[in-house]
């Protein structure tokens, strides 16, 4: 799978420990091998298994240009210039990925 490492925090360097954000694209197992001064440290490698998260049913309504629509029928269609507002209490909005078709 695709793997991206970002937000590496070097400030917590206690005994060579570092903190980073790992993001995966697709399911599978990826091997993470640290590099020290340009030399791969294969003996310090670890594997990370990426699995798809289960879909979570959204409850509540979606406001489109001020009109509330039930989430069971959203998104059935979109239109240019629409403003969407998610009115929900059972999920974290930062977990929503918006794409434009």
Query: What is the rounded Rg?
Result: 20 Å
Mass-distribution shape:
elongated
Strand content: over 45%
Considering DSSP H and I runs of 4 or more, what fraction of the residues is helical?
under 10%
Assign the structural class, choosing from mainly alpha, mainly beta, alpha/beta, alpha+beta, or little secondary structure.
mainly beta
The spatial strand order of the largest sheet comes to 8-7-9
Order of helices and strands: EEEEEEEEE
Number of domains: 2
**Low-pLDDT residue intervals, each spanning 5 or more residues:** none
> How many strands, which pairing sense, and closed or not: the largest β-sheet?
3 strands, antiparallel
Termini separation comes to 24 Å
Number of strands: 9
Discrete helix count: 0
Please state the average pLDDT score. Answer: 75
Oligomer: single chain
Protein name: Ig protein
Organism: human gut metagenome
InterPro entries: Intimin-Invasin_domain, Invasin/intimin_cell_adhesion
